[in-house]
Amino acid sequence: MMKKVLVLAEAKDRSLRNVSFEALTAAQRVSEGGEIVAAAFGSDAVNYVGELSKYGANKVYVVSNKELDTYTTDAYFQALRQVIDAVQPEVILMPHTAIGKDLAPRIAARLGLGLVSDVIDIQVEDGEVIFTRPIYAGKAFEKKKVVSGILFATVRPNNIPAEETGGTAEVVDFNVEIKDLRTIVKEVVRKTVGGVDLAEAKVVVSGGRGVKSSEGFKPLQELAEVLGGAVGASRGACDAGYCDYSLQIGQTGKVVTPDLYIAAGISGAIQHLAGMSNSKVIVAINKDPEAPIFQVADYGIVGDLFEVVPLLTEEFKKV
Ligand code: FAD
């Protein structure tokens, strides 16, 4: 049955995040030919229309209030609620990012909707929409269907490959009223500039306590650079002060699903596996052949990371 789907597109540094296109691809499956409406927020929103239509949006709600240039729960909640009222969707999808994780539960609670969060697959089976999501820290998967109300889900980055469909979209300049904000962002100060976004990286090179110092991360950074990837870390490495907590992968850190995950000097504690075990190919480098990381690895190298990682970098440079 055709369904009207609303997708909240998310941008970072003035360009759309890939997960926005992945959410639109999920929308194509769910809509079964129904209308797909994308909502883009902030002063740059109008610039995103072309790309959103390329991935299947038939209509784009451009909400260019400058209060939406930087995310605040309050402002985004007010804007999205007004878009939902206007669009009257049967399905709402948004990226499972820091923004989605913060905003979706609030929308769900205020609108009295059920929320299926962190979905890695969406299929339509016998006319019913089936959401798949990991549970027990990625050890098992559950399939869910929503039996009443609006279908509302957040989509984990890097799981539903974005598919271009071409096409054009009708643009709706949509004015929202944003008032009584309790938080106003005056300035954003970034710790690091540029680099590949860890959550969306196709290759992640992660270091653990085995790197022994912040200096020890350098060979990992070089390998990540050659592979066009991002650097991650275990909590062990973060706790030891070798790197920033923003790099932490795992149960209490970021969840990543890259095509290639290289774990160097990481033992493979269950809490770390929760953040990376769904990676497509896992390579482990550890000098302890009994390290649990080898149980989830597709390829294991027993050796000293300070010897192995530079060798890999040299080899990949030749490709
Ligand atoms: P270690 O366990 O100390 O392992 C270091 C490894 O490096 C060893 O296997 C060693 O053989 C190897 N090694 C040493 N030197 C070299 C070398 N030169 N070359 C190659 N290998 C070498 N952890 C996370 O990662 N993410 C989380 O989100 C997270 N959340 C947690 C939440 C809770 C509630 C709790 C209790 C724990 C959490 N942890 C998390 C911590 C987790 O339990 C582990 O303590 C942590 O992952 C260990 O980090 P590590 O593998 O880097 O260190």
TrEMBL record:
Signal peptide: none annotated. InterPro entries: DHS-like_NAD/FAD-binding_dom, ETF_a/b_N, ETF_a/FixB, ETF_alpha_N, ETF_asu_C, ETF_asu_C_CS, Rossmann-like_a/b/a_fold. Keywords: Electron transport, FAD, Flavoprotein, Transport. Residues 5-193 form the Electron transfer flavoprotein alpha/beta-subunit N-terminal domain. SUPFAM superfamilies: Adenine nucleotide alpha hydrolases-like (SSF52402), DHS-like NAD/FAD-binding domain (SSF52467). Belongs to the ETF alpha-subunit/FixB family. PANTHER family: ELECTRON TRANSFER FLAVOPROTEIN ALPHA, ELECTRON TRANSFER FLAVOPROTEIN SUBUNIT ALPHA, MITOCHONDRIAL. This is Electron transfer flavoprotein subunit alpha/FixB family protein.
